[in-house]
Design a protein that fits this description.
Distance between the termini: 37 Å
Bound molecules: zinc ion
Shape: elongated
Radius of gyration: 26 Å
Oligomer: single chain
Length: about 450
Amino acid sequence: MRSNPCKPTRSKRGPVRLLAACLLALAVTAMLPYLVSARPAPANVIRVALASPSLGTGVSRAELVCDGGFSVGSTSADGRGFVGRSSLAGGEVRVVPADGGVSVQSADGEVLVTSGADEALSLRSAGGSLTLRCGGKEYVCPGFLEFRAVGGALQVVNAVERETYVKCVMSTEIGGAASRETRRAFSVLIRTVPMGQKHASYGFDVCGTTCCQVYRGIFRQNEENDAIVDSTAGEYVTYEGAPIHCLYHGGNGGASCSSVAAWGGPEIPYLKSVSLPEDADNASEVWRYEFTQSELFDFLSSRSRFNGIRDGVESVRIEETDPDGSGYVTLLSVTDGDNNVFEIATSEKVRTALRFQSANFTVSYSMDAAVAVAGGEVEQVAVTRYVGADGETHEFESFADCPVAGTDAVADVDRIAFDGVGSGHGVGFSAVGAEQLVDQGYSYKYLLQFYFPGTQISKLA
Ligand SMILES: [Zn+2]
């Protein structure tokens, strides 16, 4: 889960039921062109980037270990098949960029195989498991590995059979905590995500991080999840015959966020807001951050989106929310001590600017005031409203001083609170909501069609 965005009073109300799925697809970048692009027919082999200079994750070298030896060759023209040419003895080798291509070397630096300039080189196990170490991670890789030099760094792609890929991602993203029907739904979603071809322009389908789905090769697999994947083999979600763009999140508090609210762009019929009140006891995240005025300034000035902000922040205001009614904040304004106004549009930009769990929050101001309570006692309590000169009760809307009803005095509004629900972008499938539907007896197919209205379940051969 993301780190706390700030130190001041963070309280969680209600137990947190964390599915590993909460981590999925939290960071979706360049969403608009990706969402509206055309896609080819689904493939039976998935190309997963484990290192990519194009995504800023290129590496200078990769190490491979396979006791049974290596088959060395190239990738077929469609990018999905391995074409063997030679073999190497078992043990450890390393792959590095060399003269525009790549070079396979022994552990002591002897050059064993090289590719031509701008050519890729592929390796797979000739017997036994193949372990890859690159970028500080270790993977036991099914399928084959393709290495290519891109701008002087190494791109590493693991081409893996589709159903094996789904089982591998189930182990990293879902684990075994959720119900069987929710895990069945996730297996269908995980299968559908690479069909979105998010990174096709870079020569692979998906990356192995939360940007797409976390993939660590063969990793903590368990037989129960494998059987769940087998029970949905080949199934994926379509809209008007094409694979949908699968988006999912931990929880949303009661209504999913529309894609338009999250990223702007044209409306996507199956990514509109869907309402399902989420039980507070089962909420993935119910959170609160509270600041004094000076703490708020420190917090905002530590965020790059607020570069140049001046002390004495006057207000944070929610100007607009999701037109679908989900509550996600789509336009936020911050007015600093010099009356400079910072405006942030779309809920994902609001969430990433503040680094909150979600953009589904409200803002309230309060002051400590002496209030008469029962028995004639006077207590200091947090007051969030005042009675104006018009005799009506109003919420505080800024740090501006507030008139004290019935007197000529003013009092300081000294705190601001952000009360939020949910985690992640809030678009599409909710892990928390799914569990509630399962508790009511619904199947995984119902869950998918509930959160992606108007879609169908299709099946690959
Ligand atoms: Zn990605």
